[in-house]
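Long-time lurker, first post. I've been practising inverse folding by hand and with some scripts of my own, and I keep getting stuck on stretches where the structure tokens seem ambiguous. Below is the full token string for one chain I'm working on. Before anyone asks, I'm not after the true native sequence, just a reasonable design that respects the backbone. If someone could post their per-position residues I'd love to compare against what I wrote down in my notebook.
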């Protein structure tokens, strides 16, 4: 499929902006857990910080979806990443001014960054279907997925180098610079696709509140009546519960229980990112050869098996291999996840539905932090992961076939349905 120079430029700006923001995320994910663990030496504190970080993100997702529908996504992405850059710079300044406040400031920083993350993610969800249509949609979704993995290849390596030269706290300044760069890239994308809610009138505060509540209710109703998307949300919830537990414990398991150096913690994410480089070429070929449903099943199966491997690992090499393969499985599943759901959600309501969808799917993240902070501290993080991985496999065996069948029926109904004129309009 040939693209015009303008289309190629838009895709380049899109991918560069996304990758820049994701690399900034990787720097923060490397520096903050290690700083907190070094300051406290407690797995329970890591779990608590993880829970505190994700709670505001969950509360923001439905509102982020509404904002994305009204804005169109482009301006929202730039403003969100600019806001994250400002938060990081303020955090660094306060940590340097009052070192005794470092742990509390880093926790507050995580909560603020997480509260903006839904805005950025929903902006990407809104813009991708406008950049790609038809057969190009899976390739563009795979591009976004592999930008995430590419960022994990470049981000941790950059983090280790910068930490050695500057110190971990200064990594946050570098992350702020990358967030600002990502925001600048999207300034070159066309600002179209936004809608204005008609539930409010005259810009009055009461009307705006009614409009927001009406749109939130509409989003939940559209989600709950969309069977394939509901089943997909169940799968996302189950997957994220296990990975939230793994991610919350990673710094403690790698540098504590397995006795590996800090550089190994960065290497873990770098290896995941390197696999993303291979996926840049491999994923489109697999989609063309086998289809997105097959790729989703393979990804789900691979991640379950790999999670069991890392849960039994007694040394860093086996743990790292399990983690990397599990994340590759997630990447393959997410091509199915991201491609299929946008096909069965009305484009004009995509943000309204995806807000509640993400709220359900990402709800396990604070739960995972709490599990590590409670059961993980006494029962052992790896033993906890074993139990959760077995539960994930059981859920997939039942729900994955139902999900694929529901999507096939929904897409078949979409193709065969007669166009219905909207009220007050002709067909």
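-- Answer (accepted) --
I ran through it position by position. Result:
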């Amino acid at each position: 499929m040939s693209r015009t120079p303008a289309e190629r430029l838009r895709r380049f700006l899109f991918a560069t902006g996304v990758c820049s923001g994701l690399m900034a995320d990787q720097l923060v994910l490397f520096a903050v857990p290690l700083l907190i663990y070094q300051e406290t030496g407690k797995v329970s504190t890591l779990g608590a910080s993880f829970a505190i970080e994700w709670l505001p993100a969950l509360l923001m997702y439905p509102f982020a979806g509404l904002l994305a529908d009204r804005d169109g996504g482009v301006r929202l992405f730039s403003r969100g990443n600019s806001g994250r850059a400002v938060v990081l710079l303020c955090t660094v300044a306060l940590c340097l001014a009052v070192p005794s406040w470092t742990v509390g400031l880093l926790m507050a920083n995580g909560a603020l960054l997480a509260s903006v993350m839904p805005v950025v993610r929903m902006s990407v969800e809104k813009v991708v279907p406008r950049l790609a249509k038809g057969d190009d949609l899976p390739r563009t979704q795979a591009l976004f997925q592999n930008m995430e993995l590419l960022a994990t290849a470049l981000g941790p390596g950059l983090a280790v180098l910068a930490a050695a030269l500057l110190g971990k706290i200064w990594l946050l300044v570098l992350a702020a610079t990358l967030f600002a760069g990502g925001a600048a890239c999207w300034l070159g994308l066309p600002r179209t696709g936004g809608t204005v809610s008609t539930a409010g009138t005259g810009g009055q505060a009461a009307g705006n509140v009614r409009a927001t509540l009406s749109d939130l209710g509409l989003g939940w109703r559209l989600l709950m009546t969309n069977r394939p998307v509901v089943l997909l949300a169940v799968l996302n919830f189950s997957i994220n519960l296990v990975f939230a537990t793994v991610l919350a414990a990673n710094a403690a398991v790698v540098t504590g229980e397995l006795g590996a150096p800090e550089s190994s913690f960065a290497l873990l994410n770098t290896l995941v990112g390197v696999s993303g480089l291979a996926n840049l070429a491999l994923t489109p070929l697999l989609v063309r050869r086998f289809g997105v449903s097959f790729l989703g099943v393979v990804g789900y199966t691979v991640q379950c098996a790999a999670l069991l491997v890392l849960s039994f690992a007694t040394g860093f090499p086996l743990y790292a291999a399990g983690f990397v393969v599990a994340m590759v499985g997630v990447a393959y599943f997410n091509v199915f996840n991201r491609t299929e759901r946008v096909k069965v959600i009305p484009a004009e309501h995509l943000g309204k539905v995806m807000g509640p969808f993400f709220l359900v799917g990402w709800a396990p993240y604070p739960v995972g932090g709490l599990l590590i902070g409670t059961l993980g501290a006494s029962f052992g993080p790896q033993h906890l992961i074993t139990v959760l991985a077995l539960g994930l496999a059981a859920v997939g065996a039942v729900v994955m076939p139902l999900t694929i069948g529901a999507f096939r029926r929904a897409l078949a109904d979409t193709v065969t349905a007669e166009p219905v004129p909207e009220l007050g309009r002709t067909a």
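A couple of notes from the structure itself: The mean pLDDT is 82. The chain has 14 helices and no strands. Happy to go over any region you disagree with.
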